[in-house]
Amino acid sequence: MTILKRSLSLVLFLALSAYAQSTYAQSATSAHVQTVLLKSKLVGATLPYNVIIPLSYHADGRRKSYPVLYLLHGLGGHYDNWISKTSLVTYAAQYSIIIVTPEGSDGWYTDSATVATDKYESYLLRELIPDVEHRFRAVSGRQGRSIAGLSMGGYGALKFAVKHPEKFVFAGSMSGALDPAVRSETHQGFAWGFVRPSILKVFGAVGNPVRAGNDLHLLFRGLPASRIKRLPHLYFDCGTEDGFLTTNRDLAAILRERNIPHEYREPPGKHEWAYWDQRVRVVLKLAAEQMATR
Fold first, then answer.
1. pTM of the entire structure?
2. N- to C-terminal Cα distance for the chain?
3. How far apart are CA 139 and CA 65, in angstroms?
4. 133 in helix, strand or coil?
5. I need a labelling partner for 249 at 20 to 30 A (CA). Which of 39, 41, 206, 238 fits?
6. Is 104 exposed, middle or buried (0-12, 13-18, 19+ CB in 10 A)?
7. DSSP, residue by residue, 194-237
8. pLDDT digits over 107-151, tens only?
9. Percent of the chain with pLDDT over 90
């Protein structure tokens, strides 16, 4: 019995030691993730958001403030997608930035034409950003904020850039679904069956002013020359096998025509997580560079 007990004790000790080493290794190389539940008065619901906190945040004796990247999810997704479906937490460890992944439901980051409480554009600007900057040591001001997203979130990020350029120094889109405001039964486009309910709910019928006010291509085409210099650094990409490739090319053509500075890339890839897991590394690097140099 004594030998058995000693053997069991040794096994338990080794197991606990391995666990401790594994936990230490993870905490030494991965950023910390925190979930916040924010009660939104605008939306009338409690909306969660994840925060990826850099390794140096709690160890920093200077108590410095950190720039923030707001990373938006796509249609049918949720606030936790970026963390659960990509290696974002691992990639984030090399940057001294806070990353926030908010809940946007299927609201296209737009104040809805048909549902009074679906105010996902106003929520991000008037409730989420102030809450983040109150709870965390976040840089307040344009030079410390970036925004990016995939698909629906890519549309949202570029729309925030052109409508609210004073808020962000960088805006990025991956596989952006950039044309929701012009979609209708006669202008269906890629994945119409999937996007149709949310588009009609958010943008209303053809002719609704919410459509014109949130038409990304129209906004950039009609942007006064005096406001071009105020835009954030613009980056967007779309895979060569992606159904949204045409609308991304259309936007790139408008930006070239208007001499609006931007970066546009067409890497190989489809509308899928394997692509976004690769491209988010590019977005992290660009956002960190812009927030560090402005």
1. 0.89
2. 69
3. 5
4. helix
5. 206
6. buried
7. HHHHHHHHHH-STT-HHHHHT-HHHHHHT--HHHHTTSPEEEEE
8. 999 999 999 999 999 999 999 999 999 999 999 999 999 999 999
9. 85
